[in-house]
Specification:
Length: 421
């Protein structure tokens, strides 16, 4: 099927979606609703901390606390899966993210301790959400449908990362400029938080519309793994390295060089709906063998954005960087996640282990990368300068990320080879 044919027949695309297993469709619908909450959590919590503290290190400490809470919760989740339904844990994670925002907005002043506690709570919410989301995605898709699954999912996420920042940014900036709610921006943030909480309740209701199976095998804690999986962990560290910066740097750069929260929404919307359509088409038309090309293009776009930001270090440079980031993140994900799932399919059969064991172990690879990325920012900001940290650390990470390309190509080839045995 050609791209032109797809664009001309949206009704047939809906029919194609209905041909997918019901469990896969319910999972996608749940994630679509929650996708409207994620941009607020990812972007505006950082902007709120930056506005309230005017200290980028506090933003970095918050994010580090979030990333610390995630692997801890993966561990707790692994034990709970033998006693609690997976959909209950999944929905609890979504609800907890709204609760974490409420805790943050209720603080009279932002201290390092308070921000750290709120970050850990948000990390716990992400831990329950991602641990169970990844297992459900693995269990309810197969290699030939995963490009479509992640293409459609990233289509949702990209659309919401365009629409939601524009709307929320407009609401927050007008509260500040026009004196809505007495000009109290914190009240506006609390209203946004309330809407996020309602969205998490709705997505929790949807996921309970279907019955999903828990892992059959209970053991999930292992320390020795197949060589192919250890190579996948190296790729996870490299992915985490970029993640550690991508949820922190954009908000700081925008608040420093562009303007207020309204600018956050404007910059996020620059990429337009075309990006989301491109991602859907890639997921619908590409094959597993195309993943390495999508992966490579995404990393090169990211490096280009970091170079422009470092050279210009201005409002225009930030806009170009965020545009590249909006393109890079979903391109990277629609290639990375199906590759990760394929490796789990192959290695779990070889080692005869619970698939959740690999999902749990993978999170620690991501955490090491996130810790190194955020640690680099905090170190440079403290001992060199904030501008150096925002300019050059991103470029360093962009260059190091290129090592992912040959590693991913090798992993895909090994996976294909072992999968045929």
């Amino acid at each position: 099927m050609t791209i032109t044919a797809l664009l001309k027949k949206p009704g047939e695309e809906y029919g194609y979606f209905l041909e997918m297993p019901r469990t896969m469709r319910v999972l996608l619908m749940t994630n679509m609703i929650y996708a409207f909450a994620l941009p607020v959590i990812d972007i505006f919590v950082g902007a709120y901390i930056m506005r309230s503290s005017n200290d980028p290190r506090i933003v970095a400490i918050y994010q580090l606390s979030v990333y610390t809470g995630i692997p801890i919760t993966f561990l707790v989740n692994g034990f709970l899966l033998s006693r609690v339904k997976i959909v209950n844990l999944y929905s609890f994670g979504m609800l907890l993210s709204g609760l974490s925002m409420l805790v943050m907005m209720s603080m009279e002043s932002l201290s390092v301790t308070g921000v750290g506690i709120a970050g850990l709570l948000m990390g716990c919410s992400f831990g329950f959400f991602w641990a169970n989301r990844d297992f459900l995605a693995l269990n309810n898709t197969h290699d030939l449908t995963r490009n479509y699954y992640y293409g459609l999912e990233t289509f949702f996420y990209t659309i919401t990362y365009i629409i939601v920042p524009l709307l929320v940014g407009w609401f927050l900036s007008n509260t500040d400029a026009r004196g809505w709610f007495g000009g109290n921006i914190n009240t506006a943030y609390q209203i946004v938080t309330g809407i996020v909480f309602l969205l998490t309740i709705l997505s929790s209701i949807v996921i309970h519309k279907e019955t999903f199976k828990n892992p059959v095998q209970k053991a999930f804690l292992f320390f020795k793994f197949h060589l192919l999986w250890r190579k996948m962990l190296v790729l996870a560290v490299l992915k985490g390295l970029a993640q550690g910066y991508l949820v922190t740097a954009p908000a700081i750069l925008i608040m420093r060089l562009v303007g207020n929260e309204g600018s956050v929404g404007l910059v996020q919307g620059v990429s337009g709906v075309a990006t989301a359509i491109m991602l859907y088409l890639l997921g619908r038309t590409t094959k597993p063998s195309d993943r390495i090309y999508i992966f490579s293009i995404g990393l090169l776009i990211f490096l280009a954005g970091t170079l422009v930001n470092g050279i210009l270090f201005s409002a225009i440079g930030v806009m170009v960087f965020v545009l590249c980031k909006v393109l890079f993140a979903p391109l990277h994900d629609i290639a990375y996640f199906p590759t990760q799932m394929r490796v789990i399919d192959v290695v779990s059969k070889i080692e005869k282990r619970n698939e959740f064991a690999y999902i749990f172990n993978h999170e620690f690879g991501l955490y090491i990368g996130r810790f190194l990325g955020l640690g680099l920012f905090i170190y440079l900001d403290t001992y060199v300068s904030e501008s150096f940290a925002l300019k050059y650390a991103l470029i360093i990470i962009g260059i190091v990320q290129l090592a992912s390309i040959p590693m991913a190509r090798h992993i895909i080839r090994e996976c294909d080879k072992l999968g045929k045995q």
